Structure formats: structure tokens, C-alpha cells
Known about the structure:
Layout: E1 36-43, H1 49-62, E2 66-73, H2 78-86, E3 94-98, H3 102-107, H4 128-131, E4 135-136, E5 139-140, E6 143-148, E7 151-155, H5 156-161, H6 172-182, H7 197-206, E8 212-215, E9 218-221, H8 226-239, H9 255-260, E10 266-269, H10 272-280, E11 288-291, E12 304-305, E13 307-312, H11 320-330, H12 333-343, H13 360-369, E14 372-373, H14 381-387, H15 389-398, H16 403-418
Parallel strand pairs: 1-2, 1-3, 12-14
Antiparallel strand pairs: 3-13, 4-5, 6-13, 7-10, 7-11, 8-9
Amino acid sequence: MKFRFFAGVSVLVLTAGLSACSSSSDSSGTSSGGNTTIDVWLMRDSVSARFQNEFVKGFETAHPDIKVKVQIQEWDGIGEKVTAALASNDAPDVIETGNTQVAQFAQSGGLLDLSDKVADLGGKTWLKGLAEPGSYDGKQYGIPYYAANRVVIYRTDLFKQAGIDASTIKTRDQWIAATKKLNSGGTQGIYLPGQSWYTLAGFVWDEGGDLSTRSGGKWKGTLDTPEAINGMRFYEQLQALGKGPKDSDEANPPQADVMAKGKVAQVISTPGGATAVVQDNPELKGKLGFFPIPGKTAATPGAVFTGGSDLVIPTASAKQGAAYTFVKELTGGAWQKKLALAMSYVPNRTSLASAVASDPGAATMAVGAAEGHATPNTPGWAAVEAKNPIKDYMTAVLTGGDIQKKAATASDAITAAMNSVS
């Protein structure tokens, strides 16, 4: 799943053109001349130009027989473009894909099964929210690249004025109490738009519910279960402690723009949202902090959706050996630590969490990442997100609709969408 939160990040396109370049090579990736060039598709704004250049230079120095051509792709329309590439005879050798997209690409048979490489790639400690979506039908196709998840971004000065120590907010009850106290004098205790469905998903998971379940080979929407409804009731309680619109998501209007106006004490976002806030209002520099979304009890932080990317290798690649070397290097410990520090990401495995200890936002994300979840791992989930009945459900409830009836309607829509894809 993509996260577009790096405002102003400049990405250098290392090579022009969008079609993969082919050369004479065998399945090991070695060309007849002793060298090979691999074509790699990376997504815009996933990494900075500086990190990208540093990695490519370091990789080519360590592997002088492999040259790398990186082609930057746009998120819009990427699903159709990857699908077409996988079906062609001229596919790139490595593709970065959103973690929730792997299943739909794997279903076509266009991705290389990397199940036998999991141990070699350090898969024992991969983040669950990246590793699970990277698998399909019991096989591992996507290799976790980086992770990002939501945290609470808060105004340290407003918390101080209200006499609230953010470090003591560990439970939902404590969070609600603090937010109520902040929600006064023209200040919104929290800006939470009505359709932030990834946030809702976390509350549903906290309650022991889910967005859907599978039984007998069929998927069924489960927003109408008691657990999922409890998650929505908490969302409703929290959303009321601010003036967030009930009929739009965090992008409409951009919640960073709203917080930058100075009258919002908290938002739920990836840490990169703080950078966007400060860019809009430099007076808030040094006045923003982070804490994990609180859980039902102090023992465990709140569940979060783990977004981010996986790396896949097309079966059509004639250079799979070199492609695998690239994937192993970029997802290995040394470069994962550098990537996490450069981009404020969570590394792809729990064993590397200490690498971001010096970055407040990333360190806070890492806490939540331990309770990371993913959306249902099936090609049919793309059909749900396309129409997104979850958003309609949330708006209906927040505007006074009967929660049980609206949840049942949304669950039926999820069921129909997920089972429409064979």
C-alpha cells in the first residue's frame, strides 16, 4: 500500500524510458559478455534521490558484473502497467509493488516463487504486515522492502498548556480523557475525518474483529460482527472530539494543511505528515511530537495497518539470478538500516527496530509496527478498495445511521466485491 507523505522529495530518474531493456543472458543473469544489466522499477517518492544513488553505487561496486537501470514509476495506474508487463516478454527484472498488491499479481502466475529463499533473506523476523501480503496461496512472492504505519502526531505546546504528558497516554481511555481536555477554546482535540478507514481497521483489529473472513473458499465481509461494531463505536467517540468532516478522508482536505492552521492538537498519520505540517507552517517547527496509537490496555499498543512495499521478480525476467542478488542486497540488514534512517521508515524486520531509535517518528512507528496488520490477502481485496463501501458505512454511521443495519449493508458489499474476482 502506498504512502505519499514525502512532500518535496526529489527523485532522480536514472534512466529514461518505460520499457525494460533486454540483453542476451541466461537464467542466472549473466550475459554472454560477462556482465548483465537489470532493469528495476521503483515507485516515485518511495526513496530519495540521494539514497537511491548511494545504493546503486554501492551495489555496483560490490557486484561489478551487474549494472542497474532504475526506472521511476507513478503510483497512479501502476496496477494495470505491472499486469501488462508481467504478461509480456519484456518485463523488468525487479518491481517494487505496494504490499497489498502482491496477491493480484501473483494470481496471474507472473511472479517468481521465492519461498525457498525466505531463510536466506532473514524472513524469520520479517514484519508480519509486510510478509503476509507478500505471500499468496502458501507461497512467498513479495520480499518486504520497507514499512510505514500510522502514529499520533501531536502539538507538544498545546499538550503542555493543558497539563498533559503524552508519554503517559497508553490506553484508549487515557487518550479519550486527554483529547476531551484538549478539545476546548477553539482548539480541536483531534482532527479525524469520517472516512479514515485504515484507522478504523486498527480499532476493529483491537477488538478482535476483522474486515472480512474466509470460509469454504469464499470471503465474507465482517463489519457487522460485535467486535467490528465496537471498533466503529470507538471511532465515532474519538471523531466527535474535533471538527473533522464526516463525509471525506484524510486527503480531502489534506489533514496536514488543517493541522498547519494551528487549531488542531492531534492527527493520526504517518510521521512524514509532521514534515508537511511544518512546511505549511514553519512556526510549528519543534512543536510536534509522536506517540503510538494507544491500545485497549497499556500492555499492547493499538493495532495498525502496515503499509509499505515489497519487491518482486517477474517470471519473465531472463536475469533472475542477478535480480535476486539485487533484492537480497536492498532488503538485507546493512541497507535496511541505512534506508530506515534516510527515509524515517520502519525496517523490514523486527530485529532491526533499534536502527531507528534516534528518529522520534520512525521509532514511534516501530512500536506500532509490532502490532501491524494487513488487509485480506486476496486479489479480491482490490475490488473492495475500488468502490470502498467501508467509507460509505463510516459516513452513514457518523451522520446518524443505524450502526447494525449500515454495517450489514457494508459487509454484504465487501462479500460481493471480494468474491467477484476468481
